[in-house]
From TrEMBL:
Domain PurM-like C-terminal: residue ranges: 173-318
InterPro entries in the record: HypE, PurM-like_C_dom, PurM-like_C_sf, PurM-like_N, PurM-like_N_sf
PANTHER family: CARBAMOYL DEHYDRATASE HYPE, HYDROGENASE ISOENZYMES FORMATION PROTEIN HYPE
NCBIfam families, per database record: hypE
Domain of life of the native organism: Bacteria
Family per record: Belongs to the HypE family.
Gene: hypE
Name assigned to this protein: Hydrogenase expression/formation protein HypE
Length: 346
C-alpha cells in the first residue's frame, strides 16, 4: 500500500493525471472541454459508450475502447478477455447484436512471446463465446521502458434491430432501475492480485459478454429506455451519467443493491465504496414500469442475470442527482466520482 498513488488530483491540474482515465468527473471534463470541441462532435449529453449510425438503410452501433489493465492476468480473466468483452458490451448497451471486432496490440520490447500468445488465445476464446469475429488488426512495438507489457485497443460494430432505441434521453420519471447482478467484483479481483491481498476467499472477475442477456431482455419488449455497463467509476458513475443526460433524478435503495459479502469485506479493508468499484460483466437497465417485472424475470432466467434485482426508480425530484436511501432510513447523495478509486482496472 505504500506504493499507492492518489488518482484524484486537483481539478485545475494543467497536465494529464491518472484521474482523467477514471470514468468520473475528470474524464467527463476532458471529453467535454478538449476532445468534443476539437472533433466538432455531438453535444456531450448525446455521447454514449457506442455511437448509433445509419448506413445503407441499416442502423449500426460502433464503439472503440483501449485496455491497459495491470496485471495482465487476474482471477477470472486477462487483458485479452477484457478487450473482447469490453467492446462487445459497449455495443450491447445500444441494443446491437455485436458482429465484428478490430484489434490493435501495442507491445513493449522484451515482453515474452508466450505472454502475448496466452493473451491472443484468450481473446480468440472470448470472441467465439461472444459470437463475434476479429476481422482486422494492427501491431506496434515500443522500446523497453516505454510501455507496460501489452496494451490493446479493440473497435467493434453491430446491428441494432428495428424498433430498438436505447439512449439516456429516453429515461423518464417512473422508470424502474434494474441491475443484472452483484457489483464490485472485478475491481476487487484486480486489487487482490495487484497488492497481494487475501480476503479469505478467492474473488473472481465477472468479465463476461452481455449480448445474450440483452437479447433476452429485448425479447420481452424492445421498449427498454437505456442500458449501461458500469465499468470505470462503477454503478455510481453510470447512474450519475444517466441522471445528468436525461435531466431526471434517481433514487436507489441501498439495501437492494446486490453486493457479495467478500466484496463488502474487501471494500471495508481498503476503504472503498462498492458503488464506485468497477464491473465488467454487469449492466444497469432503465425500464418502463409496465415491463419491469417481465424484464426482471427474463434477466433471472439467463445465467448472467440470475442475481438481477430492482434497485430503484427514476424521479422528477432533484434532476441530475442520484440519491441512496440507506438501511437506517436516511438518504445520502451518490455523487459522480472525481477520478477513480482503482486505476488501471480495464
Amino acid at each position: 500500500m505504500l506504493n499507492w498513488t492518489c488518482p484524484v488530483p486537483l481539478r485545475d491540474q494543467p497536465r494529464i493525471v491518472m484521474g482523467h482515465g477514471g470514468g468520473g468527473a475528470l474524464s467527463a471534463e476532458l471529453v467535454e472541454q478538449l476532445f468534443t470541441p476539437a472533433f466538432g462532435g455531438p453535444a456531450p449529453e448525446a455521447l454514449t459508450d457506442s455511437a448509433a449510425l445509419e448506413l445503407g438503410g441499416a442502423k449500426l452501433a460502433f464503439s472503440t475502447d483501449s485496455f491497459v489493465v495491470r496485471p495482465l492476468f487476474f482471477p477470472g480473466g486477462s487483458i485479452g478477455d477484457l478487450a473482447v468483452n469490453g467492446t462487445v458490451n459497449d455495443l450491447a448497451m445500444s441494443g446491437a447484436r455485436p458482429a465484428y471486432l478490430s484489434c490493435g496490440f501495442i507491445l513493449e520490447e522484451g515482453t515474452g512471446t508466450d505472454v502475448v500468445g496466452r493473451i491472443a488465445a484468450a481473446m480468440g476464446a472470448a470472441a467465439r463465446a461472444a459470437g463475434v469475429e476479429v476481422v482486422t488488426g494492427d501491431t506496434k512495438v515500443v522500446e523497453a521502458g516505454h510501455g507496460d507489457g501489452v496494451y490493446i485497443n479493440t473497435s467493434g460494430i453491430g446491428l441494432i434491430p428495428p424498433g430498438v432505441d436505447l439512449r439516456p434521453g429516453r429515461v423518464v420519471p417512473g422508470d424502474v432501475v434494474l441491475v443484472s447482478g452483484a457489483i464490485g467484483v472485478h475491481g476487487v479481483a484486480i486489487m487482490s492480485v495487484r497488492e497481494g491481498l487475501e480476503f479469505g476467499v478467492e474473488i473472481l472477475s465477472d468479465c463476461a459478454p452481455l449480448g445474450g442477456l440483452v437479447e433476452a431482455m429485448l425479447a420481452v419488449t424492445p421498449d427498454l429506455h437505456a442500458l449501461r455497463d458500469p465499468t470505470r467509476g462503477g454503478l455510481a458513475a453510470s447512474l450519475n451519467e444517466i441522471a445528468a443526460a436525461s435531466g431526471t433524478g434517481i433514487v436507489v435503495r441501498e439495501r437492494a443493491v446486490p453486493v457479495p459479502d467478500a466484496v463488502t469485506n474487501a471494500c471495508a479493508v481498503l476503504g472503498l465504496d462498492p458503488m464506485y468499484v468497477a464491473n465488467e460483466g454487469k449492466l444497469v437497465a432503465f425500464v418502463p414500469p409496465a415491463h419491469a417485472d417481465a424484464v426482471l424475470a427474463a434477466m433471472r432466467a439467463h445465467p448472467l442475470g440470475a442475481e438481477a434485482a430492482v434497485i430503484g426508480e427514476v424521479t422528477d425530484a432533484h434532476p441530475g442527482m442520484v440519491v441512496a436511501r440507506t438501511a437506517l432510513g436516511g438518504t445520502r447523495v451518490v455523487d459522480l466520482p472525481l477520478g477513480e478509486q482503482l486505476p488501471r482496472i480495464c
